[in-house]
Specification:
This protein is an all-beta fold and 118 residues long. Helices cover 0% and strands 58% of the residues. A hairpin with a 4-residue loop joins strand 7 and strand 8.
């Protein structure tokens, strides 16, 4: 099982930026993906972004395209989510997740709260 630890959440104002980080530890794999999801009470879990190695292949959810940027270091098993132009609708608990490719996301972090005030 892969352990994931998120950091960097907090309270910001609309229009501000915030950076989330996730560190993964445990078994290593040649092909895998680290992703970010978010959840708000009363809503389904939402895909935010992901990065796959090898190749640094990135993907984004429609609601964050152009505002969020995912990056990572496969040697260090870390991933960062740079969030710009934050909106109140971005308020959620953000979770880091691991997927061994091909496959589904199987391991999840504890989550970090992001709150954007208007």
């Amino acid at each position: 099982q892969v352990q994931l630890v998120e950091s960097g959440g907090g309270l910001v104002q609309a229009g501000d930026s915030l950076r989330l980080s996730c560190a993964a530890s445990g078994p290593t794999f040649n092909t895998y993906t680290l992703g970010w999801f978010r959840r708000t009470p009363g809503k389904d879990r939402e895909y935010v972004a992901s990065i796959r190695w090898p190749g640094d292949i990135t993907g984004y959810g429609d609601s964050v395209k152009g505002r969020f940027t995912i990056s990572g270091d496969s040697a260090k098993n870390t991933v960062t989510l740079q969030m710009n132009s934050l909106k109140p609708d971005d308020t959620a608990i953000y979770y880091c997740a691991f997927r061994r490719d091909p496959g589904v996301f199987t391991d999840w972090g504890q989550g970090t709260q992001v709150t954007v005030s208007s």
